[in-house]
Design brief:
Elements (H helix, E strand, L loop, with lengths): L1 E6 L2 E3 L5 E9 L3 E10 L6 E7 L4 E3 L7 E6 L4 E6 L8 E10 L5 E5 L3 E5 L2
Parallel strand pairs: 2-11
Antiparallel strand pairs: 1-3, 3-8, 4-5, 4-9, 5-6, 7-8, 9-10, 9-11
Length: about 120
């Protein structure tokens, strides 16, 4: 089993910054990809940013130029630096980790979610 622990959410004023962290632990052979998703009440969960094992990144159009995803492979940790935050960024943010087993099987794991609120 793999356990994810998220941290870094909170309340910030428009234009401010927050940094989310997500540390993975447990039975991990290798991590295939890591990412962040967000979900508002009554809406589908959407991709915010993702990063591959090679460091290739992918961002939602709405956050390009403002958010940056990074990972520390030695710590099995993914980060999301969020700058120039807007009220519409208010959501619950979820960490996602895709773990690859020694025989190549991919498994999906989710964090518990962390609330990000952008408001004056």
């Amino acid at each position: 089993q793999v356990h994810l622990v998220e941290s870094g959410g909170g309340l910030v004023q428009p234009g401010g910054s927050l940094r989310l962290s997500c540390a993975a632990s447990g039975s991990i052979f290798s991590i295939y990809a890591m990412g962040w998703y967000r979900q508002a009440p009554g809406k589908q969960r959407e991709l915010v940013a993702a990063i591959s094992s090679e460091g290739l990144t992918n961002y939602a159009e709405s956050v390009k130029g403002r958010f940056a995803i990074s990972r520390d492979n030695a710590k099995n940790t993914v980060y999301l630096q969020m700058n120039s935050l807007k009220p519409e960024d208010t959501d619950v943010y979820y960490c996602n980790v895709v773990v690859q087993s020694d025989i190549g099987v991919l498994s999906d794991y989710w964090g518990q979610g962390t609330q990000v609120t952008v408001s004056s």
